[in-house]
Amino acid sequence: MAATLSDVAAIAGVSIKTVSNVIHDYPHIRPATKQRVLDAIEATGYRPNLTARNLRTGRTGVISLVVPTLRNPYFAELAEAVMDAADREGLSVLIEQSRGSDAGAARASKAQLVDGMLFSTLGPEQEDTGLYAQLAPTLDGGTSEPLVDHVTMRNTEAIRAATEHLIGLGRTRIAAIGARPGDVSGAASLRLLGYRQALEAAGTAERAELVRPVATWTRFDGAAETERLLAEGVEVDGIVAFNDALALGALRALGQRGIRVPEQVSVIGFDDLDESRYSLPALSTISPGREQIAALAVQMLAERIAARDEPLPARNITVPFTLVERESTARA
Fold this sequence. Notes:
Keywords: DNA-binding, Transcription, Transcription regulation. By secondary structure, the protein is α/β, with parallel strands linked by helices. Helix content is 40%, strand content 16%. It has three domains: 5-44, no CATH class; 57-153 and 289-320, Rossmann fold (3-Layer(aba) Sandwich); 155-288 and 323-329, Response regulator (Rossmann fold). It has helices at 5-12, 16-23, 31-44, 50-57, 73-88, 103-110, 155-168, 187-201, 219-231, 244-256, 290-306, and strands spanning 62-67, 92-97, 116-119, 130-135, 149-153, 174-179, 211-213, 238-241, 266-268, 285-287, 316-319, 322-324. α10 (244-256) links the parallel β8 and β9. The chain is elongated, with a radius of gyration of 24 Å. It starts with a helix and ends in an 8-residue tail after the last strand.
């Protein structure tokens, strides 16, 4: 059975009212008494009743995270990072899959279950661009636009660095896998821009046959497009994949063709998924600052919840990235 206030009070040797005062951080409680109560809470695993808290304060202590799908390992790892960050803020997380729509967020907000929401995407074309944070919309019929914070990654600069890394290895025919025709503002277009900037800076002409569009950023499409590239007889000695899933698919297709990585083709991805350390060869990648994105987004949302009666201005933060060199781009 779940621990109760009475259980905590009995272990701490105080009244139920004292336990309640500690939970709500009331002043004028002796430090020694407060510590006994906190130790008892930890020992019992007591968690406040969210329904009671909501009736008293108008808040639930719960936020929602809306991701496109948890089948994509990037979003699963992002969800874990958000949950860790939320726990440090004393918040719980309700996770919804949007599957390309905002239906999940709508369900959570209409049910008045959450104080605020984090979105990993606002549309299919903006996949992987970071986290948006806003208070949960009210049901009062207000028409004002919600103030939204945005914590994002350096898409263009990061892919430029990845491409320049391959150029520095002497690669001259570098394929870009992950383009999306018609995307003009999302992650795909931003990363394609970084690829093109790197080629231009190196004085290398872009070859249309090396820019490979895909329908989805999955292992399947990474493998299929790499196989298609090779079947067409296109010469390639390097691959910049716009996420790790595409890169892992590319490694599979190259291996099936007997093409050695990195001796014949160097491959680099983007996301620094846990599994990228364990592919054969281990995948070089861009670490986009996922944990920092999660921590900052949760922190800003917590600040916005606390200042609900005094709305904060919209904030936009971009976090740094790291190029992680592993076996797939080792010097041949």
